[in-house]
């Protein structure tokens, strides 16, 4: 249990609760859920520019990272088909993957196919079911994809001014504006209470909020004097109590709750809002293909990691279909912007390619 680990090392409850947010981020779990300690380890085990446990912003936004990867691939001769949805994986008579068919009827032939989509989309939607072992299909269907995350993107006409650290008179960003700001995290009991509400189908009345202001470091993201605020919030259930839909009324009601909480820490925040974009778990699934809205393509619980990700006997990036590989967050070592799954899958695919 993460709570026990933090109790051994720290005395400050706000510090323990702030660290605990990285143990439950993206997970339908509380700091008291068995195995939650691993998720914290997963988020601090890496490094950035040689600094252990550090995270960073991508200049010009996360899309710039995708563009950089695309340019590197194109420089090596890759052909990129943007806005071209894949219909299904093409299989030969011998059962090997031979490429993909696009929804417009185009067939792209290849000796190897690497899928960055979730295991659910890759194997339950894009691959002929009769070509897969029944126990494998059942395992993929049983992967826990519950997600507590609602992402809210906000445009504001001025920097938030927090009671704990008011803004400077010139309105320029201060050091804390350039960091990750955690709200409603004064105690781990608050996180557990927010989690419990969601398990009963109700959005948290005092949600966990991780607030970032990337424009404080990258002014080109917003007009002069304005800023973009990224809110990573939980807990919100994928399915609301009583089967109620996540309609505009429900989405706005939850966002209002989040904004009321921020207002308590930074008076004037709500008046500074120019626009907001609310992405609930169903929105994250529909727009980005994340099963259940899960940002990791599946829970990072101990029963779904290492040799069991995405399924026992298939943790080495190969799939039951020869020539078809899984290279996204649903493969080992799981979620996070690190590229480890893709790099590992590429090495396995290249090894197989040399033996074709």
Care to describe what's here?
- With 356 residues, this protein is of the alpha+beta class.
- The chain has two domains: 80-144 and 291-354, FAD/NAD(P)-binding domain, CATH 3.50.50.60; 148-288, no CATH class.
- Helices cover 32% and strands 15% of the residues.
- It has eleven helices and twelve strands.
- Strands 8-9-10-7-11 form a five-stranded antiparallel beta sheet.
- Strand 4 and strand 5 (107-109) form a beta hairpin.
- Helix 2 (13-24) crosses helix 3 and helix 2 runs parallel beside helix 7 (188-199).
- It is globular, with a radius of gyration of 22 Å.
- The termini are far apart.
- The model has no long low-confidence stretch (mean pLDDT 93).
Which keywords apply here?
single chain, 356 residues, alpha+beta, FAD/NAD(P)-binding domain, 2 domains, 5-stranded antiparallel β-sheet, 3-stranded antiparallel β-sheet, 11 helices, 32% helix, globular
Set down the secondary structure blueprint.
Blueprint: H1 2-9, H2 13-24, H3 36-44, E1 47-48, E2 51-52, H4 63-75, E3 86-91, E4 97-102, E5 107-109, E6 113-115, H5 119-124, H6 134-142, E7 150-156, E8 181-183, H7 188-199, E9 208-212, E10 227-234, H8 248-265, H9 269-272, E11 273-279, H10 281-288, E12 324-326, H11 340-353
Parallel strand pairs: 6-12
Antiparallel strand pairs: 1-2, 3-4, 4-5, 7-10, 7-11, 8-9, 9-10
Function: Probable oxidoreductase that may play a role as regulator of mitochondrial function.
Organism: Nyctibius bracteatus (Rufous potoo)
Domain Amine oxidase: 32-170
């Amino acid at each position: 249990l993460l709570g026990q680990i933090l109790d051994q090392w720290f005395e400050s409850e706000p510090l323990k609760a702030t660290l605990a947010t990285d143990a439950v981020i993206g997970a339908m779990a509380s700091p008291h859920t068995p195995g939650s300690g691993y998720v914290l380890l997963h988020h601090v085990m890496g490094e950035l520019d040689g600094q252990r446990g550090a995270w960073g912003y991508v200049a010009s936004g996360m899309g710039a990272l995708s563009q950089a990867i695309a340019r590197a691939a194109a420089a090596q001769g890759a052909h990129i088909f943007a806005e071209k949805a894949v219909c299904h994986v093409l299989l030969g008579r011998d059962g090997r993957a031979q490429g993909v068919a696009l929804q417009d009827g185009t067939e792209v032939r290849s000796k190897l196919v690497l899928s960055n989509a979730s295991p659910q989309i890759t194997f339950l939607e894009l691959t002929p079911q009769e070509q897969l072992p029944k126990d494998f299909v059942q395992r993929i269907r049983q992967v826990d994809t519950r997600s507590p995350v609602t992402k809210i993107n906000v445009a504001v006409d001025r920097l938030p001014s927090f009671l704990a650290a008011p803004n400077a008179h010139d309105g320029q960003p201060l050091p804390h504006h350039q960091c990750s700001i955690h709200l409603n995290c004064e105690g781990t009991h608050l996180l557990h209470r927010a989690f419990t509400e969601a398990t009963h189908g109700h959005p948290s009345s005092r949600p966990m909020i991780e607030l970032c202001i990337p424009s404080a470091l990258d002014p080109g993201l917003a007009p002069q004097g304005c800023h973009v605020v990224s809110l990573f919030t939980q807990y919100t259930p994928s399915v609301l109590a009583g089967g109620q839909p996540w309609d505009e009324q429900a989405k706005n009601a939850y966002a209002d709750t989040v904004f009321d909480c921020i207002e308590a820490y930074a008076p004037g925040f709500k008046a500074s809002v120019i626009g907001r974009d609310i992405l609930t778990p169903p929105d994250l699934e529909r727009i980005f293909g994340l099963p259940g809205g899960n940002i990791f393509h599946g829970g990072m619980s101990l029963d779904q990691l290492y040799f069991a990700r995405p399924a026992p006997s298939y943790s080495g990036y190969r799939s039951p279909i020869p020539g078809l590989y899984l290279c996204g967050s649903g493969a080992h070592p799981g979620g996070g912007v690190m590229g480890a799954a893709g790099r590992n899958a590429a090495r396995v695919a290249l090894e197989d390619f040399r033996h074709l």
